[in-house]
Amino acid sequence: MIDIIAPAFKTYPILVPSLICQTSDRWRLQICHDGQDDYFKYCMSGFQDKRIVATETEQVTGFWGHKIRDVLIDNLVDEGQYIICSNHDNYFMPTMIQQVELQTEDIILFDCIHNYYDYSVLAAIINHSNVDCSQVAVKCSIVKEVGWKWVHNSSDYNWVQACWLQAKTYKFLNKNLIVHN
């Protein structure tokens, strides 16, 4: 089972349809809107899937959803195989879950197509400007240990680096498995 956690903020959650269209049904999603939002409630009401848990915070927390990620990590009860920290506006390729669940390493990194780079390939490299948290699947035990402590713009890099330091094994999948919007 692959757990996906995602903060959301005032746009359509394209992550959800991309998960529903996966070739593997072994995923769960926790998605939390940053603050109260009727449009989010309306959109999420259309997805009748028990694997999806949609919530909202009482107040806007800001910080690009990083504080929400920490709460969602803490809320994971039944640990799956891997956790992917994503965003509501990312799109997973249809075989992404299947590709990740075939792996056994502590951390799986994969390439993505990234809108910040004119929709060109962002290769999975662990440095400050070349990694997005959405292109990394991490064993649940490592994610629970590391949590998400960072709230600044480079939080994705800091989180991936902290997980990397806890990992014993890793694998790079040279495949574009996500479109980051």
**Proportion of residues in helical segments:** 25-40%
What's the Cα radius of gyration? Answer: 15 Å
CATH topology: Spore Coat Polysaccharide Biosynthesis Protein SpsA, Chain A
The assigned CATH architecture is Alpha-Beta Complex
Q: Find the structural class using helix and strand composition.
A: alpha/beta
Q: What's the CATH class label?
A: Alpha Beta
Low-confidence stretches: none
CATH superfamily (homologous) name: Spore Coat Polysaccharide Biosynthesis Protein SpsA, Chain A
Compute the separation of the termini in Å. 25 Å
Helices and strands, in order, run as EHEHEHEEHEEEHHE
Main attributes of the structure:
single chain, 181 residues, alpha/beta, Spore Coat Polysaccharide Biosynthesis Protein SpsA, Chain A, nine-stranded mixed sheet, 6 helices, 9 strands, 28% strand
Characterization of this structure:
The protein is of the alpha/beta class. It has 6 helices and 9 strands, in the order βαβαβαββαβββααβ. The model has no long low-confidence stretch (mean pLDDT 90). The chain has helices at 15-20, 38-45, 66-75, 96-101, 140-146, 155-166, and strands at 2-8, 27-33, 52-56, 82-85, 91-92, 107-114, 120-122, 136-139, 170-180. The chain has a single domain (2-180), classed as Spore Coat Polysaccharide Biosynthesis Protein SpsA, Chain A (Alpha-Beta Complex), CATH 3.90.550. It is globular.
